[in-house]
Specification:
- It contains one helix and eight strands; from the N terminus they run αββββββββ.
- By secondary structure, it is α+β, with helices and mostly antiparallel strands.
- It has one domain: Sandwich (Immunoglobulin-like), CATH 2.60.40.2550.
- The strands form two sheets. Strands 2-8-7-4-5 form a five-stranded mixed beta sheet, with no helix packed on it.
- The chain is elongated, with a radius of gyration of 22 Å.
- The termini are far apart.
- About 8% of the residues have low confidence.
Length: 157
């Protein structure tokens, strides 16, 4: 019985030391989506046509390690908002989404160990995509789960 108590005490002491070290090196900062040093794309209020390609490019940084990112594109025919953008784009009249309203949602891995990563993705807009207001959403997650969100208003004409 005494051996079990001693072993248990030793394990508790080791766990306490590890959690203390872990807290000191724990990532407490979300990643950053930036246009520093590049020509970022897309940008607020940018217009495309069905059949075009959106050449996505942004720089991602984190103080410890990046994880992955997601790009989602969905209609904004009802004029909803996601973030506090300082830019007000001219919106078309509200409308109901039809069968050809475009939806895109794709996850992308960032190679392990990266603290800076320039993302490039070519996204084909379907030839028959319904025109109107859209949101281009980028969700960047670092290795520990912190997330940064960037919403960009675009338009299909």
């Amino acid at each position: 019985m005494k051996k079990n108590i001693t072993l248990l005490s030793l394990l508790c002491a080791l766990c306490a030391c590890n959690s203390s070290d872990e807290k000191e090196s724990k990532d407490m900062t979300p990643p950053v989506i930036s246009d520093t040093g590049i020509t970022a794309n897309p940008i607020e209020c940018q217009e495309y046509r069905p059949g075009d390609v959106i050449h996505f490019q942004y720089v991602f940084t984190d103080d410890v390690e990046l994880g992955n990112y997601n790009i989602e594109i969905h209609n904004n025919f009802d004029h909803h908002t996601h973030s506090g953008s300082a830019v007000d784009c001219e919106l078309e009249a509200k409308k109901e989404a039809g069968e050809k309203a475009w939806v895109y949602n794709q996850d992308f891995a960032i190679p392990a160990g990266q603290r800076t990563y320039t993302a490039h993705v070519d996204i084909q807009i379907p030839d028959d995509a319904e025109t109107g207001n859209y949101h281009f959403m980028v969700r960047l997650t670092d290795r520990t789960g912190w997330q940064q969100l960037k919403g960009i208003a675009i338009k299909l004409k």
